[in-house]
Amino acid sequence: MKNNITYIAGLLLSGMIGFSSCTDSFESYNTNEAGFNNESKKQDFNYYTIPLSIVQQGVYFNYDWGSGKNWTFQTMQNLGSDLFSGYVHDFNPFNDGKNNSTYYMMDGWNGSSWDNTYGYIMPEVQKSEQINENINWGFYGITKILKVELMHRISDLYGPIIYTQFGSKTGSKPDTQKEAYTAFFKDLDEGIAKIRKFVTDNPNMENFASFDVFMPEGKKNYAQWIKFANSLRLRLAIRLSVVDPGTAAIEVEKAMDPDAGGLLEVNNDIVAVSTALGFTNPFGEINKGWGEVFLNANLESYMKGYEDPRLEKYFVKAEGMKGETSVINYAGTYKGIRPGTGFSHKNYAGHSKSTITQTTSAVLMTPAEIWFLRAEAALRKFTSEDPKDCYEKGVRASFAQWGADGADKFLASDNAPADYKDAFNAEYNVKAAGTITPKWDANADPDVKLERIITQKWLAMFPEGCEAWAEQRRTGFPKLFEVMVNQSGGTVDSKIGPRRLNFFVSIKTTNPEQYQQLVDALDGVDNCGTRLWWDTGRNFQ
Questions:
Q1: What whole-number distance in Å separates Cα of residue 141 and Cα of residue 123?
Q2: Confidence of residue 418 (pLDDT cuts 50, 70, 90)
Q3: Residue 319 and residue 334: Cα distance in Å, rounded?
Q4: Residues near 164 by Cβ (< 8 Å), separated by ≥ 6?
Q5: Can you state the angle between helices 245-256 and 367-379, rounded to 10 degrees?
Q6: Which residue in 413, 402, 327 sits closest to 366, CA to CA?
Q7: Residue 253 burial by CB count (10 A; 0-12/13-18/19+): exposed, middle or buried?
Q8: Are 106 and 95 in contact (CB under 8 A)?
Q9: Contact, 510 vs 121, CB < 8 A?
Q10: How many whole angstroms separate alpha carbon 355 and alpha carbon 357?
Q11: CA–CA separation, 196 vs 137, rounded Å?
């Protein structure tokens, strides 16, 4: 964690800065950055699109409000969701090995997603809604879609959120997660409707293209945003497939309606925060600039066991370290770090680092994910599609995305995940957590079919840990290693891991009334072992 050790250490006790201190200078900051007055900005849409540009950069958070970039993302996602999902691990023994890896939940880290999103990005969403609602229906529609993409991630981390009442003059009453999801679907409806109305009135005017950093080249248009909205609807619908199957079925049908506008489906239908216009991938900076993103032992187990050709696309081989004493010869192999051992050394600095760079666009949604969602929808009889066909298309889409060969061989494989061997301490060795293979088995039980779908979906969504962790919690797949050292004080079950992030210290101290409302909306104890609404602990009725 570069240049922020003192700051983060302070946060562990005091929590994050309050909302008011974050938002005091929004207007002046935007005016100064844009460099010209509002009337000039209105002439070329800057007045209407600057908030949207900020929101796009704030979903995969790397927007600089004056305190620097990248470290915010590290605490918001890389040391949380990316770790808990089984994707990556840091070689640093933060807090002498007592940290999120061992379920000693770091308040300053885990509160940063809430604090930064509400302090910096949601005000820009509200601003964009206000200035575009009655003037630029296309921009307003995009705002609604972005709002859902931004805030479902926050709800899937914490549970209840302030969504429908954000910025309300009568108070910011939290929504339960069920209420938030209902609002998400409503906002997707409104966003799509507004875009369609705009396109009807302005059939030849794609006036958002030059500001669009989400959609791929050649597809920076409103039709692609509708595809994204439909795909986002499908993602959220499947999330509710057990807790609220009636709503899930309705929303799946809406997403896949032939007249809905389509889904992300072909190889270049990738939604990502592009680095072409100045955005720097924070994951890449933490990796290449700071040298702190390493292969997680869980991902090593699955990908090495499967002989997955994508492994070399995701990570580089371990370099090893001069003068070290290891119990196995691991240099030149793909070697990961096992979470939950409580190590207090830096010997893992020679392990496998990610290939993601500062100029790699930050992927948020891919055709592969959508095909796996369709496979699950078919498995649950929400559609008449063939689960096997959708599953195999998901694998092929992921291989194509990463430029990996051998999809046919992979899909025919009976390889299973590999056991993990630690490079320095044999006590950390562990048998593979899962036994599922890539090859489809039409005669398998529904739960086994689901495990196969979700495991390959997990492999395909790398490195987007927010969605990967949400789906792992929802389904229990892929099966991950238990931690050896659990320092949660009994709040987190080692067998299933953290279920959410707790509300952090600053909310309790600066706004105790709102904190109590959030806890009431959670309908459970405010700790990391409490399940979210959609986290039912089962996969079928």
A1: 17
A2: very high
A3: 9
A4: 175, 179, 180, 183
A5: 130
A6: 402
A7: middle
A8: yes
A9: no
A10: 6
A11: 9
C-alpha 109/C-alpha 84 separation (Å) is 13
Contact of 186 with 134, CB cutoff 8 Å: no
Angle between helices 137-158 and 222-239 (to 10 degrees): 20
The one-letter code for the residue type at 234 is: L
Q: Is residue 220 over pLDDT 50? A: yes
CB 496 within 8 A of CB 536: no
- Token code pair at residue 381: 């009889």
Nearest Cα to Cα of residue 382 among 259, 193, 181, 244: 244
User: DSSP readout, 105-117?
Assistant: --HHHHTHHHHHI
State how far the Cα of 341 lies from the Cα of 135, in Å rounded to an integer. 56
CB half-sphere exposure, 303, CA atoms < 13 A: 25
Tokens at 478, concatenated = 């892929």
- Extract the tokens encoding 170: 């009568």
**Nearest C-alpha neighbor of 81 from the set 146, 154, 137, 136:** 154
Q: Which structure tokens are listed for 379?
A: 């498995």
Joined tokens for residue 209: 């293209």
The answer to whether the Cα torsion of 442, 445, 449, 452 is positive or negative is negative
Task: Say whether pLDDT at 28 is over 80.
Answer: no
- Residue 286: which of 362, 361, 364, 358 has the closest Cα? 358
Question: Confidence class of residue 21 from pLDDT cuts 50, 70 and 90?
Answer: very low
Residue in 441, 445, 433, 427 with CA at minimum distance from that of residue 480: 433
Structure tokens at 527: 């700790």
Lowest-pLDDT choice from 15-19, 116-120, 134-138, 317-321? 15-19
In which residue are the tokens 């609604």 written? 144
pTM summary value: 0.93
Both tokens of residue 409? 């061989």
pLDDT of residue 24: 31
Residue 516, C-beta contacts closer than 8 angstroms, at least 6 positions apart: none
Count how many Cα atoms sit within 13 Å of the Cα of residue 385 in the half-sphere of its side chain.
Answer: 23
Q: Map tokens 């993302």 to a residue.
A: 73
Question: Are the beta carbons of 247 and 256 closer than 8 angstroms?
Answer: no
H-run or E-run covering 295: strand 294-295
Residue type, 352: S
pLDDT category at 1 given cuts 50, 70, 90 is low
Cα separation, 270 vs 401, in Å, equals: 9
Nearest Cα neighbor of 132 from 143, 116, 123, 117 is: 143
Determine the Cα–Cα distance for residues 178 and 536; give it in Å rounded to an integer. 13
Are 160 and 523 a contacting pair, CB within 8 Å?
Answer: no
Kindly tell me if the per-residue pLDDT of 454 is higher than 90.
Answer: yes
- Give the span between the Cα atoms of 307 and 402, in whole angstroms: 15
